[in-house]
Amino acid sequence: MALRLDFTSEAFFRDPPKAIARLRMSGPVVATRFPLVGDVWITTTHDATAQVLKDGTTFTLRREDGDVAGLRWWMPGYVRTIANNMLTMDEPDHTRLRSIVDEAFRRRAIVAMEPRIRAIADGLADELFADGSPADLVQRYARILPLAVISELLGLPPADRPRFIAWANSMSSLTNVAGFFRLLFAFRKMRAYLEGQLQIARVQGGEGLIAELVQVEREGGQITPDEMVSMVFLLLAAGSETTTHLISGSVYELLKNPGLRDWLEEDWRRAGLAVEEFLRFVSPVQFSKPRYVRRDIELEGVRLKKGDRVMVMLAAANMDPDVHDQPERLDLERKPNRHMSFGTGIHFCLGHQLARIEATCALQALFTRWPRLGLAVDASQIHWRKRPGIRMIANLPVIADAGATPQPGSATADVSQLLAS
Q: pTM for the full model?
């Protein structure tokens, strides 16, 4: 019998270690029902997760007829175009497309972008309270930084960034049927926009990854026009959305734990180590995409049948006590840190290096500029969006000086407005 759990509940998002520990008691692989996906097996251990991700022959993202797991027949053609990307492909198509984007990335030195990323973060930190206090750190900082970086990396016009923010907000609002249809509308507009940017690059050239991809295409790279659109969409969306929630989740944990924040601020050379632990503990991406089981197999002692679907729970792998000592504890000095937040196997996250740099720069710029930054509300008033598979703080109201005496009047109203948005 399938285990009934609400993967979008406030209790689940507020205390993942507690919920995951209860889930693991049911076994290393558990049958359940997942929103929008339906009946599916989920992994609850590090080893089961690694086996599924590494065995691309037994566990495939597509059925034998080529259909993508989780993609429904009634979804519009433009959604299928966007979904037809590296994250939904098995071999040999995955390697074909990955080699093209890898080549484009090699031409753009990611590590060399760190000073520029830090400059963007410094500017956003300076402007955090430009429209008053309290400020929503999600919308005014954590969302804008990754979007600014990835759009600059792609070579998209700075003037178009408000569009990206609106589209990103549509993706974050995928919590119900209304949110899904808003997302479909955003997808259609995004596809048209990206097709236009690719055509401009083909005719005029330019700077950035889009121009590099067009050059690889021109040099004989095996990629169709639709695959090119889906690739740029993937880079724009995946290159911003998950990092947004890594940054906001990390800031939230530091504001709740002044001792950890003091430890980090004593020596910012510790930031890289801290970011690895935030990747494990915050776990913005909680589940992989569903995969089809291609043959009867025993996974960690659980019998799966051909045709079953399975999703790996990255957040559960990150909380496995057999791999991490006291996994429920946020330990910024944790060594070694074998988190699975970037996955493993052929689908290991392409943007892992960029995400790490962005998170490091975001934390250092923010707390250097606002050393007394604090939550504008009690931690119990912070909530998460009911989006299955991704752990995202809805709003994070902050004030510049946590030690200042609150002034009567507008501040309370401002906080209420932020939390209601």
A: 0.89
